[in-house]
Amino acid sequence: MLMLQNRPPRGDSDDAREWGEFRHLPGKRFYDFSKIRQEIQDETERGAGFNKGVSEKQIRLMISSPNVLNMTLIDLPGITKVPVGDQPTDIEARVKKMIMSHIKQENCIILAVTPANSDLANSDALQMARDADPAGTRTIGVITKLDIMDRGTNACNFLLGNIVPLSLGYVGVVNRSQEDLNQNRSISEALAYEDQFFHDHPVYHGLSDCCGVPQLAKKLNQILEHHIRMVLPSLKDELNCHMIAVVKELQTSGEVVESKVEQGAVLLSILKKYCEAFSALVDGKSQEMSTRELSGGARIHYIFQSIFVKSLEEVDPCEALTDEDIRMAIQNANGPRNALFVPEVPFQILVRRQIHRLLDPSLQCLRYVHAELLKMSHACEAPEVQRFPVLRRKLEDVMGKFLRDGIKPAERMIGNMIEMEKGYINSSHPNFIGGSKAVELAVQQLRSSQDGTDVESVSTLEQGLRSRAVLANSVVKGSLPNQGSHPQSMNERSVSAGNAYSRTWGISSIIGKWASPNDRSANTALGETFHDMELLPSMIQLRDPPPILKPLETQTEREAVEVIVTKLLLRSYYDIVRKNVQDFVPKAIMHFLVNHTKRDLLNAFVQKLYRENLFKEMLREQDDVILKRKRSQEMFCVLQQAIQAIDEVDSEMSSPNSNSSFSADTTMRLPRTPSHHSHV
Question: Do 80 and 91 touch, CB atoms closer than 8 A?
Fold first, then answer.
């Protein structure tokens, strides 16, 4: 692989000389081209052996000269039909595979070399070129050994394309013979001999435009120029795309900062960008807004409304309470006596339990928002932070501690709010159902559930409940209904006396039809019974009470109404508290955690990280970042030079008086290495 590099001439005599350098001998320049030829021979023997072996390993040689074009020439081995020496049995297939891997590339110009003393129609080089380039738009036919054809024959039909036509045509050349190589005949002498041969030949003299190595160089130069015109726009676009990518990498890598002032400015800029990006993400003003999923503050709103609020709305305060639980609580609150009214204590105990259940989901909502803020802190890291792993770790530590500290006051506020709701049950709330309404609804529910109940019995029960509700309200006010017209009965006096030691919800006990009108008859019968008991021969023994006592399994209508009333009161007050919690908890989280973070995060960063003695440590870069920046800078310079060169070429080609920068004569000043077989 011969890589030609054009080097503009300078005043220094050493720079004006041509030199070569092998890839396997980096740094060693060869100014004597005979030594270059010898090194090629030696490297061939080292890689392929001494007995005509073949190797796919490339010998890469770079020639730097002011007399060459910037291009790469690949000298491929000739096709061998019969293996000889150390060549493998499949030598033909291997060589064809090697050749095809190069000539199938679209930006490759194929030189199909065929000797003049062979049948052009059977040329292996032309056949492979046609397989790789069916249109023939990048194939040039090269006819060699024109000076050793049989007398009376010529290659005129070959050169004119009458046998196997090619779009780019044919060029005939006369190379040095093996005898010339053995005698070290120079290139200039060989070119002079070739020029004289074509000048004196009667047939080739009229085909001077397609004969000679200078004409081949000229044709290659023209093809190269045409190829450059074709690929120049796309090549320029590709280089610009690479340039943009490299510029982005350089922006990510940043610049090296040395002084304390620069380090402080860079650190403060990173901290400000971090906080601004965080606030923008929370407020929904981020430039990196996603269109596929919720992000930033929208996720917090989703947690508040779609998770927290809806979850509380789906909770039934009586879901975990059975009728037996409520009945048991009411009877336990009565103590050793039968209460005339539904006591307040069971309701307060049960409703406080349900209010306390709201604490866990409220704190869980706080934890969800905290987790979202942590995610946002990772998403809003500036690209510059990636350069400094120590600073990135410090930012994460300070941010994590800051958010943990913000959780504590929010937790206290939420806990205090729940305790306030538990500490005072506001039965005077305008949205609270109240006792009279609860009794009315309870009777309606009982009536709808007891389809077989006597209508008169239910009506009597309803009238008794309503009258006792009015009675209870009057007792609370300190007076009885119709006090001036009717004297108090025993039942009324008992109600009035009971009010002195029992707090009620204004809901009377269900006495109704269970009260007996004839108290004297009852006392007489009771006395007779005790008289009869004294005549019995033995005492009646009572059963021992069981360790766990429960009410009778049979539930009376009175108890059923009391249970329904308690449920209605419980649901009514729970809804009031639930709405308060649904409104207050998001406000507490936003104030103590989210808004606090937006306001004071930068101050916390400056206080913890912006210290002169920490600048060097926090802005220390990793080795791979430094290496990446160096490579990007080198690539940036190379791309700049490439784009500049393309602009110059484009300018020269666009000029109407432009000519090729290199003539055929100057192009061929490069000494040629010996060829062993036909070339493609």
Answer: yes
| Residue among 575, 475, 502 nearest 346 (CA) | 502
Contact 2, 68 (CB under 8 A): no
Give me the DSSP letters along 564-595.
HHHHHHHHHHHHHHHHHHHHHHHHHHIIIIIH
Can you read off the two tokens belonging to residue 6? 């054009």
* Contact in structure between 31 and 65 (CB atoms under 8 Å): no
Q: 321-356, pLDDT tens digit by residue? A: 666 666 666 666 655 666 555 556 677 778 788 888
Q: Residues near 92 by Cβ (< 8 Å), separated by ≥ 6? A: 79, 80, 81
Q: How far apart are CA 401 and CA 399, in angstroms?
A: 6
Q: How many CB atoms lie within 10 A of CB 504?
A: 20
Helices (H), 83-212: 91-103, 124-132, 156-159, 178-182, 187-200
Q: Is 164 left (phi over 0), alpha (psi -120 to 50) or beta?
A: beta
Nearby residues of 261 by Cβ (< 8 Å), 6 or more positions away: none
Instruction: State the Cα–Cα distance between residues 333 and 320, nearest whole angstrom.
Output: 20
For residue 512, the model assigns a pLDDT of 37
Q: Helix 213-253 to helix 623-654 angle, to the nearest 10 degrees? A: 140
φ, ψ of residue 486 in degrees (nearest 5): -125, 140
At residue 193, φ and ψ (nearest 5 deg) are -60, -45
Residues 6+ away with beta carbon under 8 Å from 319: none
Burial class (CB in 10 A: 0-12, 13-18, 19+), 594: buried
Mention every residue, 6+ apart, whose C-beta is less than 8 A from residue 586: 304, 308, 365
**Average of pLDDT values for 553-564?**
65
Helix (H, G, I), strand (E, B) or coil at 486: coil
In SS3 terms, 620-655 reads as CCCHHHHHHHHHHHHHHHHHHHHHHHHHHHHHHHHC
